[in-house]
Amino acid sequence: MFVLSTKSECLNKLILLGEGHLRLAVREYVAHYNLERPHQGLSGALLVPVANENARGPIECTERLGGLLRFYRRQAT
Fold first, then answer.
1. Which of 14, 55, 64, 70 is the most exposed place for a label (fewest CB within 10 A)?
2. Could you give the CA distance from residue 9 to residue 30 in angstroms, rounded to a whole number?
């Protein structure tokens, strides 16, 4: 399932310019998949829970691969 997710959510949307670019894209996707992406099998939870979850702070966006992958969370106060 991971290979299909990597291909459909990342690699099919990029024009890769060599092996180095491919490795960077896969490395960024793996980090996003493991740290930032909610997982359906865990009821929408993250694999590594956020330690400092703030319920009222402003929302910040983290982007990877030029905005292709985005993660939203509340800023720590």
1. 55
2. 11
End-to-end Cα separation, the chain, in angstroms: 37
Question: Tens of pLDDT along 21-69?
Answer: 999 999 999 888 888 777 767 777 777 776 666 677 788 888 988 888 8
Is the predicted pLDDT of residue 18 greater than 90, yes or no?
yes
Smallest CA-to-CA distance from 50 within 39, 35, 62 is with 35
Q: What is the DSSP letter of 21?
A: H
| Residues ≥6 apart with Cβ < 8 Å to 75 | 54, 57, 58, 59, 60
CA distance 46 to 39: 6
The structural domains of the chain, with segments of one domain joined by +, span 2-74
Strand blocks (E) in the chain: 59-64, 69-74
Residues 8 and 57: their CA atoms lie apart, in Å, by: 33
